[in-house]
Amino acid sequence: MNIITMTTTAIVAWIGAVTGTIALVWDFVKWWYAERVILDIHASPNMVSTTDPQTPHVMVVVTNKGRLSTTLKLLSFEVYDTKKQMKRRKPVKQSVVPNPLPGVLPHVLEPGKEWMGLVAQNNTELVKYKT
Questions:
Q1: Pick the residue with more confidence: 18 or 32?
Q2: Dihedral angle computed from the Cα positions of residues 47, 128, 60 and 67, in that order, rounded to the nearest 10 degrees
Q3: Whether 57 and 99 share a structural domain
Q4: With the C-alpha atoms ordered 63, 67, 73, 78, is the resulting torsion angle positive or negative?
Q5: How many domains is the chain built from?
Q6: CA dihedral 109, 113, 118, 121 (to 10 degrees)
Q7: 8 is in which domain, residue-wise?
Q8: Residues 75 and 106 in one domain
Q9: Is the peptide bond before 102 cis (omega within 30 degrees of 0)?
Q10: What is residue 79's DSSP assignment?
Q11: For the whole model, what pTM was predicted?
């Protein structure tokens, strides 16, 4: 019967190697998630305003869930036909909304804060997306 015997030095070396590797992986995970701007973006179509109930709007809400502030410079809409195009960020159609209301761009978005903008849904650029 073979019994593997390890010296105290070998046991301490293995413990050090394992805990060192775990600490390195944990530091990488902390760096990966802590040093990034994390934006949560929601778009809600067919929103009706009390001031103009005849015109439907697309409401866009952006929340900064990261630890760094960022600047929102423009609002754009993109259309992809396939998931491959989306993965490669190659839109078939796209448009830019220079002044969404009531949101003002550019806007500095601090961590934990939220920005909201409205775009008329019957906008000629957005109507092209329905085809």
A1: 18
A2: 170
A3: yes
A4: negative
A5: 2
A6: 100
A7: 1-35
A8: yes
A9: yes
A10: E
A11: 0.69
